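Handoff note, outgoing to incoming analyst
You'll be picking up this chain. Sequence as last confirmed:
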Amino acid sequence: MELLREKYLDILEQKRDNGIAKAIVGVRRCGKSTLLLQFINKHFGSIESKNIMYLDLEDYTYHEFLDLDFCFNKIKERIEKSKQKLTIFIDEIDRITDKKNTPNAWKYIITSFYKKADLYVTSSNSKILDKNTELVGRIDKIFVFPLSFSEYCQYKNFKNISQEEKFFSYLKEGGFPLIINFDERERKQQISQLDAEIQVRDLQPELWNKGLKISDNTISLIKKYLYQQIGTNTSINNICNNLKSNFIKIWNEDLSIVVDSLINSYLLYKVERYDVHGHEILKTDWKLYVNDHSFRNIYLTNFKQNLGSLLENVVYFELLRRGYRVYIGKNKDSEIDFVAKLNEEEIIYYQVTVELNENNMKKEYKSLQVFDRAQKIILSLDKDESTDEKGIIKKNIIDWLLEK
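Most recent structure output, in case you need it:
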């Protein structure tokens, strides 16, 4: 079953022919290529339509287009011959290079043709969104993530099981569309292979370009440690010290490059701290979350290990899907799990916990005692929902994830 990713299709529809290039970005195998084909089928019938030019640069059929000059000339030729404005789709555009191996040579395709055609590209590397390139103001980004819990339920087409059972199945399997219907052994193998593929195709080349040579084994050990530490306040110095205590030796400067490269490949997301009273981003400490929790699960004997951190990971990416900018909140001597901002007026504070009980209730409610008009929500696996006299809302995390 192929799931139509209606939300993303609607976003592409809104941005159609808006005068700038559309960049569909996200981690490998999250569904970018499928989304592109769904959009093409909806508006043009197929990739064979005379009104479009479609290049899948992962397919050997289009291998000649990996050369910048060849690609440029072919696109220019098609635009000149077309009797109406051409729509161009380029899947994995950052594979284009020139004979001199100029960094980011592919950007000349975008800068040359974004006004002459309705241009759509995909990329698995955040370099395409670099604020210091010529692409500023010429590209509209659309972030695509693996399946949300709601999409997962549609994709799996569950019958006669509870919402809680569906949710724990999601926590166990993750959200990669092409993998979740495999059996457990095959699924873990596929996720491990994807993890290794990203390391070989995205991470190592970036490290080499920066003159950094680190063995695949060391990188795998670093990733394993970081995946298991999601949702933990940290810094490069803290990570480095913990790695050394586990006999993984690496300099702080080199580790910083590795972490940045993991972020550039969309494997990890870095979340900064926000002072809710001073209204400023803090430079000390931050948290990392992994794009899909299936990466984390391949290194654990029990996926429910550190369940609270896993729930945080799911909530964080759901907030990104809903269009929020997300921070960790510092509230005097307390911490708010997430500060979610659509704009300066619409802010929501979230606490995430497995359950509320006599041991943690005071702490969770105290963190949300911020004297402003922002909505304050505690998400847990508890089934009862309520609102206290201070306006703090208690919600079931599964119900919240299924909200429209």
